[in-house]
Design goal:
The complex is a heterodimer of chains A (424) and B (280).
Chain A lengths: L3 E15 L10 H13 L7 H4 L3 E15 L3 E5 L6 H8 L7 E7 L2 E4 L12 H11 L4 H15 L14 H13 L5 E4 L8 H16 L3 E5 L3 H7 L2 E6 L2 E7 H14 L9 E3 L3 E9 L3 E2 L4 E9 L3 E12 L4 E6 L8 E3 L4 E7 L7 E11 L3 E13 L32 H5 L1
Parallel strand pairs in A: 3-7, 3-8, 5-6, 6-7, 12-19
Antiparallel strand pairs in A: 1-2, 1-4, 8-9, 10-11, 11-13, 13-17, 14-15, 14-16, 14-18, 18-19
Chain B lengths: L11 E4 L8 H7 L1 H18 L4 H21 L9 H28 L1 H6 L6 H27 L11 H25 L3 H15 L11 H7 L3 H13 L8 H26 L2 H4 L1
Classes of the chains: A alpha/beta (424), B mainly alpha (280).
């Protein structure tokens, strides 16, 4: 009964990156023909097709991953952007094939790697429920039997026959989640889907996922929301640069992840992170090295384009260690909008004169919208805000009681309020 | 615990590099309804987004027919003993179906790239769905044939029932070539430009405006390598009460090429399918 439901043995996935030909992921037949002709002409020189593409680099998105999941486990996978979490989910859900290794799955897998995959804006809510259900592997009868439940969960009864392009984004997400949540596979694979939707709905989704876990089903869950991972998952997995750093009870895994984030105080060209398909974050560091509440903070950022890209919008996200967003710095306001990057990097410094955060651990992320894609890139860097120098006789309450923000305030001397003043 | 649960049905799946998935055909069966939904989606969307809707499916063959009939008259092509309109239109029926299916299927994977990179299902369903969608237009064009027959008071013979197997042949050819081009299109985006050319060129080299019998005999075998030649001849023969000749060699070669195309299409598709999500 308690044999593993998923067994992964030394799994690896290699991608080949063409540095020159990176502007296009796909090949043009024209190039292949041209290259092959060239190769024929230079027969004596033994230049291979691969070499002629300037340089090719093998990139292991996942390397030597082995683990087991037992039935009924709810496994949370955490790690920074580019750590291989999504690749692992894609392999488990059979979207892509591993390069080496082996996975053994005993049961039906359903995956939800994106909210509303396959939704068509022109179709009505009702039509999309059937279509999406079928895409996720449900039969028509199965969908019909759960139809009312799905509609009730999504709270879209009144809009069933409205095309989803007229839905608010909240309704859209609710409907999409509802369909996926009512699948009944033995194994449910979920990528960062709770990042969207309002807080109340997130709670509802978490509740639903919790029920799924309690119902003996196995869940593999990727999220940057540590609070959600902590409350939902029994065990955790921490991936770093494609390798398995730690597997164990969720508390200790999150602990290790937090420590490792705090160790990497800066990000440079060597440890660069991809921001979507076309940009690369080559530098992110903070000044001063010891950040104090109420002190100043500078962030140095450098973004390198891999091909011509327009940065339409960009914002810096600041959130707490358990994933609650504290503030954003909207860089559109500072002229970083609709910038076209060609060969040169975009370098700038963001200066916060007066960092009014309660002491504690925080994270930095970026929101980036280009003409190709838009996404939140979370956990790029972690930083600790130290307590301010004490002024006054009264020691502040411990940080955990004080929320995130230190507001500036004063108390005016109490004055007597006369009745006629109130009437004014 | 319920007794029914005590012996759960467990299906085991093994994911390994290069493993030709043994579950492929089982999955295809499990997802069979997706084929229906994908086709249904495409039809719904098409008729919601285009003002003319069904009329498009009629207008294109009708106008092409008018041009070809005029062309036949102007060049004084030899009479065939049947009304020119029906002569041309009976060839346009399979041609329109094939060309629609091929054009739609060849871009279907690219157009559904979000699905391919985010969900697993047998990919073959996407181009197959496009071919099924084209069957709807095919039914509409058949409707126009009925109208034409009434207009010219042309009564078909028993041969008309052979349209059913002939349609299956056309379907097989569309699926075969559609799968091949859809897979090629994922890897080499040039095919986006090649397919419209094939379709345009094909209309002129296939016996739509003329009869296969007007091709000189020594070129006949070579000409028959175009699988549409045999299929169109077959459609004509079945619709026109067998009044047009049906060369068994031409027809046989066409059937062989059609079968070959299905085999090539499926095997190439299956071979490249595994890496679709990585390159799309």
């Amino acid at each position: 009964m308690n044999s593993p439901i998923i067994t992964v043995e030394s799994l690896g996935k290699k991608y080949r990156i063409n540095h020159q030909a990176e502007r296009q992921r796909y090949t043009a037949l024209r190039d292949v023909i041209a290259e092959n002709t060239k190769r024929l002409l230079q027969f004596g020189k033994r230049s291979t097709f691969a070499e002629s593409f300037v340089s090719q680099e093998d990139f292991w998105a996942l390397k030597d991953i082995s683990f087991e999941i037992r039935q009924g486990d709810v496994l949370g996978i955490i790690g920074r952007n580019g750590a291989g979490k999504s690749t692992l989910l894609k392999i488990l859900s059979r979207i892509t094939e591993p390069t080496v290794g082996r996975v053994r799955i005993r049961g039906r897998v359903a995956s939800m790697l994106e909210v509303g995959t396959g939704f068509h804006p022109e179709l009505t809510g009702r039509e999309n429920i059937y279509l999406n259900g079928a895409i996720l592997g449900m039969g028509r009868l199965e969908i019909r039997s759960k139809f009312d439940e799905i509609v009730a969960f999504a709270e879209v009864e009144k809009f069933l026959d409205t095309p989803v392009k007229r839905y608010s984004s909240g309704m859209y997400v609710r409907l999409a989640f509802a369909v996926a949540a009512h699948l009944e596979p033995e194994i449910l694979v979920i990528d960062e889907v709770l990042a969207v939707g309002d807080a109340q709905f997130q709670k509802k989704c978490l509740g639903k996922l919790n029920d799924v876990g309690k119902g003996g089903r196995t869940v593999v869950f990727v999220s940057h929301n540590m609070a959600a991972v902590q409350s939902l998952c029994g065990s955790g997995m921490f991936l770093e640069s494609g390798q398995l750093r730690r597997l164990g009870p969720i508390g200790s895994v999150i602990g290790e992840y937090n420590t490792s984030l705090l160790k990497n105080r800066t990000l440079d060209a060597k440890t660069s992170i991809n921001l979507g398909a076309t940009l690369k974050l080559e530098r992110l560091d903070l000044e001063p090295t010891t950040i104090r509440s109420g002190g100043s903070l500078s962030m140095h950022i450098r973004i390198m384009p891999k091909r011509q890209t327009m940065i339409m919008e960009m914002a810096i996200l600041i959130y707490s260690a358990d994933g609650v967003r504290v503030a954003i710095l909207d860089l559109r306001q500072e002229g970083i909008r609709d910038l076209i990057l060609w060969n040169d990097p975009l370098s700038f410094e963001v200066f916060v004169p007066d960092l009014r955060l309660v002491e504690g651990d925080y994270r930095l992320g970026l929101f980036m919208a280009t003409q190709y894609d838009q996404a939140d890139f979370l956990d790029l860097l972690a930083f600790t805000v130290g307590a301010p120098d004490l002024d006054g006789d009264i020691a502040p309450y411990p940080a955990k009681y004080r929320g995130f923000l230190e507001l500036e305030y004063s108390v005016r001397a109490p004055t007597v309020i006369l009745p006629d003043k109130i009437l004014m | 615990m319920k007794i029914a649960n005590s012996e759960p049905f467990v299906e085991e799946l093994i994911i390994e590099p290069g493993r030709a998935e043994r579950n492929y055909w089982r999955d295809l069966w499990r997802f069979r309804e997706l084929l229906y939904f994908l086709a249904y989606r495409d039809i719904l969307v098409r008729y919601k987004q285009t003002a003319l809707g069904v009329a498009w499916a009629l207008l294109r063959p009708a106008l092409t027919m008018a041009v070809f009939v005029a062309f036949r008259r102007m060049t004084k092509m030899p009479a065939t003993g049947v009304p020119d309109a029906i002569f041309v239109y009976s060839a346009l029926i399979p041609w329109q179906f094939f060309s629609n299916a091929l054009s739609e299927a060849s871009v279907s994977l690219i157009n559904n790239s979000n699905l391919i990179s985010k969900v697993y299902f047998p990919r073959i369903l996407v181009p197959a769905g496009s071919v099924v969608t084209s069957l709807v237009d095919f039914a509409v064009t058949l409707g126009l044939l009925v109208v034409l027959m009434l207009w010219y008071r042309f009564v078909p013979g028993w041969q008309i029932f052979l349209l059913i197997p002939l349609t299956v042949f056309t379907l097989v050819l569309s699926v075969g070539t559609g799968l091949l081009l859809a897979a090629l299109n994922v890897e080499y985006r040039d095919f986006r430009y090649i397919v419209p050319f094939i379709v345009q060129f094909g209309l002129f080299v296939s016996p739509v405006a003329f009869a296969t019998s007007s091709v000189p005999p020594r070129w006949r075998v070579l000409y028959s390598l175009n699988p549409l030649a045999g299929i169109i001849d077959g459609f004509r023969w079945a619709i026109l009460r067998g009044q047009t000749p049906l060369d068994t060699v031409t027809f046989g070669i066409s059937m062989a090429v059609t079968t070959l195309s299905l085999w090539v299409g499926i095997s190439y598709f299956r071979r490249t399918e595994r890496s679709f999500a990585d390159v799309i």
